[in-house]
Model the fold of this input.
Amino acid sequence: MKLLTVTHFYEAHGGGIERVAGHVCRNLAAQGHECEWAASAADPAPVDPAITAVPLRCVNPTERLTGLPMPIPGPAGLRALSRAIGRADVVIVHDALYCTSIAAMMLARAKSVPVILIQHIAAIEFPSAAMRKVMALANYSVTRPMLGAADQVVFISDTVRRAFAQTAMKREARLVFNGVDGAAFHRGPACRAAFGLPEVGKVAVFVGRFVQKKGLGVIRALAARHPDIHFAMAGSGPISPADWGLPNIHLLGTLKPADIGELFRAADMLLLPSVGEGYPLVIQEAMACGLPVICGAESASADPAAARWLEGARIDLGDPDGTAQRISPLLDRPAPMAEERGDMAAYAAAAYSWPGMAARIAEIAGEISSSR
Done:
């Protein structure tokens, strides 16, 4: 089967949606499907002989100004996307609100090519009331019509599925969790010295883009409240934690998956006070390493079977100090027993599989393609 994946960026941009798309695309190719991947040409395309990259010429003014990635394809990008859709049996679109996703849906419908829409997020609780209204309007006027237009909708978390439960769709939506790379994320010993972290003391890890919606303001407030805890931050973005002037902040840069797994095994907890993300991939990866997780309440309930291992808190990005006050008691809790960590890691290894996710997507693609 010829499958076209459409995202706003390639993996090199560093976002969770792009990482998911890359894993699924590679596993679909490994399972014998012809795979193309269309995304903004702003970042290097994947170098993989099993995947044909379709870089789209785009402009991206909003990310620099607001931190919101929104590449807009120009005429040449739209022509390249249209040609790629014409070659595909099924188009797999990741998330509805991006301009590349909207263009792919419109072009696919014009060419009668079926679409699977994998929806990763629901609403984003921006600190600004105006931005929250814009997000609500966007979900009403764009996301819901996109979900209704797709031949099949796939949600990657129960949180997002509940958020759109009243939306009319062509078929009953499927719930398919993201996978985890077991080679990189697993239980085992690790050494903090490899990351320049002290061997003594508690270490909280953050992995992700340094942007507001990831809760960087909350982490700053927590680091100021807890000088005895070391905060290891892996990633990059427009916010610079180096400017905070806090000696317990350790910046590690952008790490490869195997290094992130090593960092998780060396840490005491994953701290992810983000909003509007459904079920962030790093949570599942941390679970596979047996690492306790502190996150937003919506993410903690994204997989009901895993909720017992996740500590959720109400996140208000407009009130980072108040949010930090709610999270602080969770940082001070005793570490879970080794047996509980082992149970969490075993569950993640069994429940979250990239080959399994790709197989489910391929099965759905076969169903909607044959029904056409």
